[in-house]
Backbone:
């Protein structure tokens, strides 16, 4: 058994898992990497079509698994036969492990730096009246990885969350001015709940609907971050 080949094959297998499978925020490192170089993780936009990340990642995964099993099998045939059990256990616990790792990575973080937002678990139903009065009911999930409580001000951006750019509804949503809502997140805690936002549309269009993957502005102690992971 070559130690160099074993390290390479093991690293390739671990990279394939990280690249392919979703972490604690609900998408994979591969999705982020492909988007960063201008390649959509899906064959069509808006999280539809064939998931390119999955097919590419499974190819890397198959190579890594085969090479790792081959190297281990030379000295530990029993372990090689049970390697698939270890790999499945890692895959199933990957999201959980990355979530717990964040508590270590952000151990000393405070304020907005301690906050993460699970965008793919979010949604808003909205209702715009002819008078312009607007109500949005949003399901949101935020995590506080810090050791101090966080007092956050939340404001969803309906227009940026709307994916169809050539549509009359977009102009109405762009004119909506919602009032922010305040929430408290406990130390090492998670906020998951339904919040009501109210506001006014300057260009009203009598319509209602539902948006997914909400772009969210989060403010803590005067510092703001717009959470938009922009996975096309």
Residues:
């Amino acid at each position: 058994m070559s130690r160099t080949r074993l390290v390479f094959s093991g690293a390739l297998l671990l990279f394939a898992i990280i690249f392919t499978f979703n972490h604690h925020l609900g998408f994979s490192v591969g999705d982020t990497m492909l988007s960063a170089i201008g390649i959509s993780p899906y064959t069509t936009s808006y999280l539809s079509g064939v998931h390119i990340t999955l097919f590419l990642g499974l190819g890397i995964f198959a190579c890594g698994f085969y090479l790792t099993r081959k190297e281990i099998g030379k000295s530990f045939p029993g372990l090689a036969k049970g390697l698939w059990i270890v790999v499945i256990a890692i895959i199933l616990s990957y999201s959980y492990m990355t979530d717990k790792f964040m508590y270590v990575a952000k151990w000393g973080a405070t304020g907005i730096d301690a906050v993460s937002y699970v965008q793919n678990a979010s949604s808003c139903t909205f209702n715009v009246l002819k008078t312009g009065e607007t109500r949005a009911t949003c399901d949101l999930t935020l995590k506080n990885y810090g050791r101090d409580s966080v007092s956050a001000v939340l404001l969803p951006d309906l227009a940026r969350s709307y994916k169809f750019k050539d549509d009359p509804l977009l102009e109405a949503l762009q004119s909506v001015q919602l009032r922010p809502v305040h929430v408290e997140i406990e130390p090492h805690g998670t906020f998951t709940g339904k919040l009501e936002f109210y506001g006014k549309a300057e260009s009203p269009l009598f319509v209602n609907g539902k948006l997914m993957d909400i772009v969210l502005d989060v403010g803590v102690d005067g510092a703001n971050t717009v959470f938009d992971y922009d996975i096309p």
In short: The first strand starts at residue 42 and ends at 44. The mean pLDDT is 88. The longest helix spans residues 52-75.
